[in-house]
Write a structure and sequence with these properties.
The chain has 105 residues and is of the alpha+beta class. It is built from 2 helices and 6 strands, in the order αββββββα. Strand 2 and strand 3 form a beta hairpin. The protein is globular and about 30 Å long.
Length: 105
Amino acid sequence: MSFWERFDRPVAMASRWRRRRVCELLSDGKAQSVALRDISGSGARLDTYAPPPLGSRVELRHPDAGAILGHVSEIGEGQIRISFDPRETSIAFALAAIAADMTRG
């Protein structure tokens, strides 16, 4: 196998450190439990059975990282993506959520 062929094939991680952390999502004064699937400084992907409408302003509350405001930017089957405003606080929130999951026993 040549050097470049190694970069062309898909790479799968042996196991992901991220678990589906249970968080709280607030929308229109109503709270629901959601599972955090993925997070970055620009947004988060959540599992939910009752997605808020597209474009809704929401607050995501993480048990260790605190809370952040965002809006629903995508809706899929059983999942939503919320987008955060690109600020230092959103990056700090994402890093805190990731660090909390990595350090939990």
